[in-house]
Structures are given as structure tokens and as C-alpha cells.
Amino acid sequence: MGSAGEVNWKLADHPKLPKDKVVAMVVLDGWGEADPDQYNCIHVADTPTMDSLKKGAPEKWRLVRAHGKAVGLPTEDDMGNSEVGHNALGAGRIFAQGAKLVDLALASGKIFEGEGFNYIKECFETGTLHLIGLLSDGGVHSRLDQLQLLLKGAAKHGARRIRVHILTDGRDVLDGSSVGFVETLEKELAELRAKGVDAQIASGGGRMYVTMDRYENDWNVVKRGWDAQVLGEAPYKFRNAVEAVKKLREEPKANDQYLPPFVIVDENGKPVGPINDGDAVVTINYRADRMVMLAKALEYEDFDKFDRVRFPKINYTGMLQYDGELKLPNHYLVSPPEIDRTSGEYLVHNGVRTFACSETVKFGHVTFFWNGNRSGCFNPEMEEYVEIPSDVGITFNVQPEMKAKEIAEKARDAILSRKFHQVRVNLPNGDMVGHTGDIHATVVGCKVTDDAVKVILDAIEQVGGIYVVTADHGNAEDMAKRNKSGQPILDKNGNIQVLTSHTLQPVPIAIGGPGLAPGVRFRKDLPNGGLANVAATVMNLHGFEAPGEYEPTLIEVVDN
Ligand SMILES: O=C(O)[C@H](O)COP(=O)(O)O
Ligand SMILES: [Mn+2]
Ligand SMILES: [Mn+2]
């Protein structure tokens, strides 16, 4: 198929299903299916709308896979996440995702032969190599074992001075696990030092407070990181990073996600690793959403989001290219998955008018991720993307309602306007509140989500439309770390270990609405169906056959 110019965008008419119905495509972020117990916030919450949809099983409600290989991740132990989930939902095919592509490039050694690595190598003789990114084995944005291989390989290929700028996790992994990850990294760096490489941690901070904001919700987060990483300035100074993380968890008693920024200083109190002219910088995260803002700050000559004070002349490389459309960054170690011919692009070419909406923290999920990591519309005359500003500077357990109501009302208005064939939203609460680990607040978030779904389904009822309600991965349905037999793991005080991360659970998908043709039901021959099967399903509901290379549709039409 090659370049976009050669693609035949025309979709065949579906032999049985009509066109021009309004289809609401509702993605509940972090809403998996799990056994009911007190740590299943969806079960605990009052969710009459979602409960009623479930009664449609097996013809109008079923489960689909949302983790591991079904969404292009390396193993079945990899939980799902928003990027891979929305990529699969929008693209209708399973692509080897960043995690996997980086694994392959490291295993074959190709990562050290590419243009990106050669570009940073130019600095090895006289400059420092800086590695910035999320330090954990969560596997959503980055992985510690990949960082370890990159460190070894960089040293082998001539890096003489290396500084690592860490971001602690506690969101894709258990809170408190940062100490162990920093210790492991310190061992790795000590081994490099034993081989004559001057390698150390230079700065750090918690991912949600330092650097890893997304969709331009709060540039202060990136600025805090910039000050520590580039300028070597931070409110906290330590001689070593293990001590930094341990102390900051005690005072000001921050959790891993929200550790304040710190820099590591030498015996004279001087920061050990600011970024200077002639240095090389790699952002080690493969996932784009929470690295793009820093990538812009590191790469763009013209930049007005905050005062950078200094803009060092560096050779900057991403682990991946984060945005193909913006070519950001220009240099990268591993080529990203080429997610082409997405359902959004096809539908636009076939006259389907689309409205997409979420609040800032999930806005890119139903636009950028949905469209194969591509920013912007395909055709502004056919599409309208609406972003509702998210609350800034709070953790979402204090405001678990988030903007669910506003998103639902925008969707309702778009549906009732009859201007659009597809109205697509992401409702963030189950996920964003689930990540805080606050069970009570997450229950509230689930209830609010259910209310929002009702608003959208009521509007669909009014216009004789169709709804598809699904999710991108699990989160709120399980808030407890469990042992192999599924029992919550208790600490010595009898408290559960709170699971802030996503899960390996499947997610529900429900179809319905007055516009759904009689005889449409879920097929029984796709028991292992996953999120990638949804795009063909939605194309059918718009009255089209899906392209042949798409994963098969989940529905069939039987004669009544
Ligand atoms: O970036 C995050 O918030 C988490 O690492 C993953 O959550 P998401 O995949 O739902 O965005
Ligand atoms: Mn998600
Ligand atoms: Mn999440």
C-alpha cells in the first residue's frame, strides 16, 4: 500500500446495515470487568446504566481483551494502557507497540547502529550523555530493563560521562516501589563506574509533579523538570538518589507519583549533571503523550511555554519519534509503529462526520491515539474535536467528578444537533481517580461515569441512533494487589496494598439503541476478540464493510 496517495479509501457498503445513523462511541477509561468484591469500585458504585447494558449479554454485551498481545504488547503479563488501547480501537489492527519495538531493537543491537544513536554519539567524545525518563518496570511508558541495556550499550559504544534524570512512578507500579528501582539503577551505574565510565543519577522527581504532564494541561510540571534536569536547580538537594527518594517520601511525605524535584550535588554542593552545550540527551520513554511537552522544550528554538533561562545546544533524541505529523523529535533511536489507515481516516473519506470530545487529560486519547498517534483532524470540514479543560494542580481524588458531566453534555448536544454521524468520547474517571489509589473517590468516579453514560444513551434514544460503550483497559475494577489465588495482599498492619495501576482484566463492550438494526448481535465465534475488533464493528454500524486487513467485526446480522 505504501504512501497514503495509493490507498483506496472507498469502503464497500454493508450488505445489510444502513448508513447515516448517529453512532455514539463511548470509551470508559480504566473500566474493566472483574469479580465483585469490596475493592472492585465499579461493583461497589451505583451503576444502573452499565448494569442494564450487561443484561444484554451475550448478544448485546460481551467482554473483549484489552491487554498483552491483543493490543501489541510484548507479553500476556503486560497490562493494557490508554495508548495501545485507543490505538487498537481506532486502527482496527494489532501493531507491535513501542515497548515491543524497543525490545527488538535492543535485542538485535540495531538500536546502536541507527541514525538516532549515531547522532547522540557525536557528543560522546567531549560531552555528557543524559538519559531522562520514567524509572520503573511498569511497561506503559518505559521499562527499567531497557534503560539498563541502553546504559550498557552506550558505554560500550563510547559514552564516557552519563547522567540519568529519573522520574519516579507509583502509578503503573505500586507506590513505594521507587526505592527499589533507584537501588537497581544505582548498582548498574556503579558497575559502569567500575569500568571507568563516569555515570550517576543527576536529578529526579515524581512523574505527576515533574516532567510527565500531558496534552499541555500544566506546563509548570515540565518547567519543574527543566529546572532540575537542564539548569541543575531544585528545592531539594541530596548527595545520592536513594536517600533523596527515601527522605522525600517521609518529608514532605510525598508519594512516588508526586515527589518534589531534587538534584544530586557533589561534595561542594554543586549539581552533578546540568545539561550543557555539546551534550547528548535521550528521553527514554517510548510512549508519546507524557514526553511530547518536554520534547518540545528540548527541541524547539521558538518556545514560549515557560522561561527556559538557558537553551543548550544539544543533540536530542527520543527513544521513539513521538509525533510523526510534527516530526517530533527529529531524531529518535527506534522507529515508531506505523499506524496507518485508521478507521477515523477511512470514515472521513466515506462521508462520516465525526465529533470527538474529552477533557484535557484524555483529549489526545480520542484524537491523537485514536488516529494512530497523529495530531489534528484529517479533514476539519468533516470533524470537530472539542477539549474541555481539566482541573489543574489537583489529584483527582479530591474532584472525582472531573468533567464527566460536561463531556456527556457536549456529546448530548452533538448528538441532538444531528450534524454528526459519530460522536466519540472518553470518560476519564475510572482511570484517573483509580490511579490515585483512593478507593472511596474511585467509587464516586464510577458513579459519575455511569450518570454520564446515561446522558449520552438518552440522547441516542431521542435521535434513533446507536451506541457502542466500551473501555480501553482495566483500572477501577480492582484496587488491590493480589496473590496468585486472587486474594488481596495485606501488609503487617492488615491493610491491603493499594493497586494504583491498570489491570490485566478484559473490558466490556455493549451495543444498542433504537437505530441498531434488528438481528444485529455479537458473533459467538470470536471468543478471544479484543479491542482491535471494535473498529470493524463500528464501521459496520455506520453502514460499511471494514477493509479486509482489519481484525474481524464482532457483530453479525441474523434474519429475524
Ligand atoms: O500515563 C498515565 O497516566 C499512566 O501511566 C497510564 O494511564 P493511561 O494509559 O490510562 O493514560
Ligand atoms: Mn486509559
Ligand atoms: Mn491510566
Automatic annotation (TrEMBL):
GO terms for biological process: glucose catabolic process; glycolytic process; response to blue light; response to carbon dioxide; stomatal movement. Its cofactor is Mn(2+). The active site is at S82 (phosphoserine intermediate). Mn(2+) 1 binds at D431, H435, H502. Its EC number is 5.4.2.12. Keywords: Cytoplasm, Glycolysis, Isomerase, Manganese, Metal-binding. It is an enzyme of class 5 (isomerase). GO terms for molecular function: manganese ion binding; phosphoglycerate mutase activity. Mn(2+) 2 binds at D29, S82, D472, H473. InterPro entries: Alkaline_phosphatase_core_sf (IPR017850), BPG-indep_PGM_N (IPR011258), Metalloenzyme (IPR006124), PGAM_B_sf (IPR036646), Pgm_bpd_ind (IPR005995). Residues 103-323 form the BPG-independent PGAM N-terminal domain. Pathway: Carbohydrate degradation; glycolysis; pyruvate from D-glyceraldehyde 3-phosphate: step 3/5. The keyword Methyltransferase does not apply. SUPFAM superfamilies: 2,3-Bisphosphoglycerate-independent phosphoglycerate mutase, substrate-binding domain, Alkaline phosphatase-like. Its main location: cytoplasm. One of its GO terms (cellular component) is cytoplasm. It catalyses: (2R)-2-phosphoglycerate = (2R)-3-phosphoglycerate. The keyword Phosphoprotein does not apply. Belongs to the BPG-independent phosphoglycerate mutase family. PANTHER family: 2,3-BISPHOSPHOGLYCERATE-INDEPENDENT PHOSPHOGLYCERATE MUTASE (PTHR31637), 2,3-BISPHOSPHOGLYCERATE-INDEPENDENT PHOSPHOGLYCERATE MUTASE 1 (PTHR31637:SF7). NCBIfam families: pgm_bpd_ind. This is 2,3-bisphosphoglycerate-independent phosphoglycerate mutase. The lineage of its organism: Eukaryota, Viridiplantae, Streptophyta, Embryophyta, Tracheophyta.
